[in-house]
Amino acid sequence: MTEGPVTEGPVTEGPVTPLLDARDVRVTSAAGVLVAGIDLTVAPGETVAIVGESGSGKSMTARALTGLLPEGVHATGRLELSGQAYDLAARTPWQRIRGSQIALLLQDPFTSLSPVHRCGEQIGWALPRAGRAAGVARLLAEVGLPSEVAGRYPFQLSGGMRQRVAIAAALAAGPGLLIADEPTTALDVTTQHEVLELVAGLQRARRMGLILITHDLRLARARADRIMVMYAGRLVEEGPAAEVMDRPAHPYTARLAACDPPVTHRLPALPTIPGSVPRPYAVSDACAFADRCDLAVEACRTAEPVLAEVAHRPGNSGHRAACVRPSDVRPVAAPLLAVPPAAAVPPEAGLSPALLTVRGLTKRFPGSAAPALDGVDLEVAAGEAVAVVGESGSGKTTLARCVVGLERADGGSVEFGGGATGPRRVQYVFQDPYSALNPGLTVGASLAEALKAAGRPRSEVSGLLDLVGLPAAYARRRPRALSGGERQRVAIARALAPGAEVLVCDEPVSALDVSVQAQVLNLLSNLRRDLGLTLLFITHDLAVARQVADRVYVMHRGRVVETGPVGGVLGAPAHEYTQRLLASVPAATRAE
Amino acid sequence: MNGAVLAFALRRAAATLALLLALSLLVFALLYLAPGDVARNLLGTRNVTPEALARIRELHHLDEPFLAQYWWWLSHAVTGDFGTSIRTGGQVGPLLLDRTGVTAATAGLAFLLSVLAGVPAGIATAVRRGRPLDRVIVAASVVGVSAPGFAVGLILLYVFALGLGWFPVYGTGEGFLDALWHLVLPAVALAFGLGAFVVKLTRAAVIRELDQDYVTFARGRGLSERRVLRLVLRNAAIPIVTSLGLMVAYLFGGTVLIEVTFALPGLGSLMEESVLFKDIPVVQALTLVVALVVSVTALAVDLSYLAIDPRVRARAVRR
After folding, report:
1. Does residue A12 lie in a domain region?
2. pLDDT tens-place string over residues B109-132
3. B131 touches chain A (CB under 8 A)
4. What's the confidence (pLDDT) of residue A40?
5. Domain contains A83
6. pLDDT at position A114 over 90
7. Exposed site from A26, A65, B133, B242, fewest CB < 10 Å?
């Protein structure tokens, strides 16, 4: 089952001595405070999720607990491990702690293993020399891999298998506590589910404590006993997982949960959190969330609220929030299906003429065994939004790149309104807004360049910025001074500059935080309505596809396995693969 | 697997051979790029009589088409016969052979010194990034990279040969130890700049690897610092080996000046004399030898990837 905590582990601080008891953990860099004093306990067998967006300090907390802070960043505080106390500011004997007591598992199995060593070697280093091969085989079996994997190099394995190897390596020295920093974010949804199940099983078998660092509230709800929500370097709420999710006592928790799009139905507009996360050291004597909070009162801006017990019901189980008005916080009710889902869409997409027609597209990359595209047909009508979903290696990005001409297909045709594609009519929005903009050019110069290519004057820059909801003054900034969401807005503005009719978006929100993701998705939906844009939207995220698209194509190994209206395909999937994808999505936040 | 690796190695060797062939064509064309009449150039300072010119023309097949001349020259060159030196009138092959020992010893010693000192220093600085030792060595390596080898050579000569009298001022010495003793200063002068370069590139490569996730993960699962360092060095070996290969070309440029400074009768000083004298057959032979050494080194670097990087090995097999 994916729902609910997987262990019967102790939820309250009872008589059980905690495995880890950290007090007043503070992390500071030259710029200022990054984590402002956090208390954290984990009992044997317990799962604690630390949830937050980028810049919340969740990863820094994990690094501080393992003595792995980057150069120039320091921690203070007290750490008690199985009864032994350490001072984080002093020279902590990390060699004795890491591995045998705490192990840190990282996000990306593509970079966390050495590329030039065999998997067996990497797992075996933490084992005593005698009986190392047997130990490696035992660990591999424990993570569900055959023993031949020991002789393979990481690059010969899939992402999920690599993460299993990494887990085996992390567990080699028998730690009592595993800290997993976004352990599944880099994996495909079906693999994510398997890896999380594996970790849960290992945790049960070894009675191990687990700190799960994640940005994903749904995942935290499904996997953790307790949830700690961090915002701008502060702990804003903590408590039993179900309690925190069902009765949030901090406005940030409530609004963050609402930003996560549901996979079951389409919202007319996604709830967002206005503004952006402040830097932890930029806030003093105020609630860090006050500027973005609609419940904020004078008291929120004059003193930092302390973490206090929330009085929901008698015998409360450690639900605490740092809010002066916890009882006024309500779960944000997502506006339910008040408007027909496809408000801006031609009612019968099939009847309007196809603007983009892809027929029998094939593509094989040199040196790869399987084709990236194996006869793909796709049609997009004018004004329609079509999502292509699939896992990595499904060929969805190759399809998008072939459509805009960034890649040349081996066979098949891409026709655009009856003719071939042209740069003025189709534009591309890339996944990573950090590398998609030229860091040397100001935003204005980037946009002016795109305008010039279409023979339009520079004076239209401010209009473009306005279109994507950015102030005209941003034209003078460089990408470095913008947040991820702002950069993606600029990238969208640049794509719109030549007056494109079709926007091909390749995972445009997957590198963004959920609250920012919601803003960008709303922007795309508004642009569609206002400009009559046609969207071809590539995503691995079914919930995002649900919110954006009218129709969806499900791709698997270079083929389209299922297609149809988004409600039909995701509501009642016909193909086995689509069903498997849907089953892997962590259970939705609340009963809808 | 092994067959595929061998096929890859053979393909690379064939490519190197093709490259050398192309280079030899260019080298042969040197004769024609030099200003003036080819026969007169080949005669050099000897008496220019119609008979001598005719003899030269016949000897060098100058009346035949360019490609035929090239073929004639090449087929002799591969057997070590590069013709007659204009300056000495002797055979180029034995002349070259005579001079190779000193250069090979100097360059080899310098290479060894710079690698043996530079790689550990680079690792030490990378591990102690930002600390005093790092700053001192980095500052010293900036000096090393920017100081010209012949200037360093002159200073060394002044201090250790003239001032302290520890080392000889010039010459090659008799017997192995004496010869080694004579080569220490030239090798050190050559190794100074080279070693500084090795420090910088090793430091950069190791720092890049230290910042990788797999290092954090290795520490995060309790591996010892020694083990972590070995892990890093194994990964850093790939860029370091590449750069060491590139350095061989640089080494030859440096040897010319050093040999002149220390009056060593090596290939470098031969090159200097021959260029000054427009001794084209010798210049041709020398250029070809340098090209051979550099491209064989490049081949060796390429093949060493097969040993140190399993990803390259896998790609080589797949192709």
Report:
1. no
2. 899 999 999 999 999 999 888 888
3. no
4. 93
5. yes
6. yes
7. B133
Q: What pLDDT is stored for residue A5 in this prediction?
A: 44
Residue with tokens 């005209």: A472
Give A421's pLDDT tier (boundaries 50, 70, 90).
low
Q: In angstroms, rounded to a whole number, what is the distance separating the alpha carbons of residues A388 and A370?
A: 20
Contact yes or no for A95 and B222 at CB 8 A? yes
Least confident of A174-178, A549-553, B96-100: B96-100
Q: To probe the interface with A, which of B207, B209, B211, B217 has the most A CB atoms within 10 Å? A: B217
Q: Does A28 touch chain B (CB under 8 A)?
A: no
pLDDT tens, A40-69?
999 999 999 999 988 889 999 999 999 999
pLDDT level of residue A333 (50, 70, 90 thresholds): low
Q: How far is B315 from chain A (nearest CA, A)?
A: 8
pLDDT reading at A77 higher than 70: yes
A258 touches B: beta carbon within 8 Å: no
* Final residue of a structural domain among A160, A192, A224: A224
Contact with chain B for residue A434, Cβ under 8 A: no
Residue of A nearest to B232 (CA): A114
Residue positions counted in chain A: 592
Q: Do B235 and A103 touch (CB under 8 A)?
A: no
Beta bridge partners of A177: A102, A209
Count of CB contacts below 8 A, A vs B? 89
Quick one: pLDDT at residue A2? 41
Question: Residue B30: is its pLDDT beyond 90?
Answer: no
Beta carbons of B218 and A99 less than 8 Å apart: no
Task: Kindly list the distances between the CA atom of residue A141 and the CA atoms of A144, A167, A404, B93, B316, in Å, as whole numbers in the listed order.
Answer: 5, 12, 45, 65, 31
Are A24 and A157 members of one domain?
A: yes
Q: Which residues of chain B from 212 to 231 reach within 8 Å of chain A, CB to CB? A: 212-214, 216-225, 227, 231
- Closest to A98 (Cβ–Cβ): which among B129, B214, B222? B222
CATH number where A85 lies: 3.40.50.300
pLDDT at A3 over 60: no
Show the beta-strand stretches assigned E in B174-226: none
SS (H, E, C) A537-565: EEECCHHHHHHHCCEEEEEECCEEEEEEE
Is the model's pLDDT at A201 over the cut of 60?
yes
User: What average pLDDT does the segment B125-152 reach?
Assistant: 85
Rounded Cα gap, residues A337 and A266, in angstroms: 7
> Nearest C-alpha of chain B: how many angstroms from A468?
36
Give A362's DSSP letter: E
How far is A379 from B145, CA to CA, in rounded Å? 61
| Chain centre to alpha carbon of residue A340 | 28
Nearest CA in chain B to A102: B221
Same-domain status, A123 and A82: yes
Q: Does B49 touch chain A (CB under 8 A)?
A: no
The type of residue at A261 is P
How many distinct structural domains can be found in chain A? 3
CB-based contact A103 B221, cutoff 8 Å: yes
- Do A350 and A474 sit in the same domain of this protein? no
pLDDT band at B64 (very low <50, low <70, confident <90, very high): confident
Residues 6 or more apart whose Cβ sits within 8 Å of residue A242: A4, A221
Strands A551-556 and A559-565: antiparallel
Q: Is residue A299 part of a domain?
A: no
Q: Is A274 inside any structural domain?
A: no
Domain that residue A456 falls in: 434-500
The verdict on a CB contact (< 8 Å) between A106 and B318 is: no
Domains for chain B: give ranges and CATH numbers. Answer: 2-77 (no CATH), 92-277 (1.10.3720.10)
Section B236-249 average pLDDT = 85
Which is more confidently placed, B291 or B149? B291
Burial class of residue A39, CB neighbours in 10 A (0-12, 13-18, 19+) = middle
Q: Which residues of B touch A95 (CB under 8 A)?
A: 222, 224-225
Same structural domain, A389 and A480: no
Q: Please answer yes or no on whether B216 and A112 come within 8 Å at the CB atom.
A: yes
Do A460 and A544 lie in a common domain? no
Q: What counts of helices (H) and strands (E) characterise chain B?
A: 13, 0
Nearest by CB to B222, which of A99, A105, A106? A99
